[in-house]
DNA sequence: CGGTTATCTGAATAGTCACTCAAGCAGCGT
DNA sequence: ACGCTGCTTGAGTGACTATTCAGATAACCG
């Protein structure tokens, strides 16, 4: 594997003055480890909130004082009731909402994770 | 529009005892307003972090002490360099990374928004 | 200037995803 | 039991999206 990653090598040379292949690979390995340690957790939470319908549902759940049932959410998003159900299931899977059964109704509520994530973008957006 | 939203009406009747159409629509309007006031801001930020490549790049930028150039990031994600460039552009557009030009290199750095969002899911994930 | 370097951009494609439709299921009332 | 209600689930399809390839750009160096 002689002379691998030429660009990166040149960049390190430009920065530090000199650089051998081992230096290159070591720097990469360090970063790789750091990023992996941080984990890739939460990708699905982000993906869930990155869709308009699910985002709006989460906003609604967050804005509501108590919890809401599907028949309350349905009129507020302009997709079919089936789509609402799908979206809510995704939110629960992503840890952004919780479900409670009561008779024939299912009540949804936003989780702390959802609240905190929304708070971050709201706060940062105003800045 | 007599007798609209029958399910919702029944639900409110079950809860409060009685309910007229106006009550139904008013409750919906309130929620709608609340959710809209909160805004739909940040959807693109969430969407950006919801993709594996972009998420990983953000993690790398966040894990790095200073800022990183493309030639450092490229070896750490297994997509083409072009895809890395696309992804980084998306991150900048979403406000999750900033770009700095220096000679022939472009250095990327994660923004506060990115840091805060990642912090939330990391913290919540450990709980 | 011409050549090389590091990165970007646009078009095309492959893959994923969100929606709708139709059917299904559990809980309640009769 | 039966039907009705509120919601869910699965299959299918159209729309979007992430990636790649090829060509472009801008900065540096001779």
UniProtKB/TrEMBL annotation, chains A, B:
Keyword DNA-binding among record annotations: yes
Keywords of the record: DNA-binding, Transcription, Transcription regulation
SUPFAM superfamilies registered for this protein in UniProt: Winged helix' DNA-binding domain (SSF46785)
Pfam family, one: HTH_5
GO MF, one annotated term: DNA-binding transcription factor activity
Domain HTH arsR-type: 34-127
Matches recorded under InterPro entries: ArsR-like_HTH, HTH_ArsR_DNA-bd_dom, HTH_MetalResp_TranReg, WH-like_DNA-bd_sf, WH_DNA-bd_sf
NCBIfam families reported in the protein's UniProt record: HTH_metalloreg
Protein name per the record: DNA-binding transcriptional ArsR family regulator
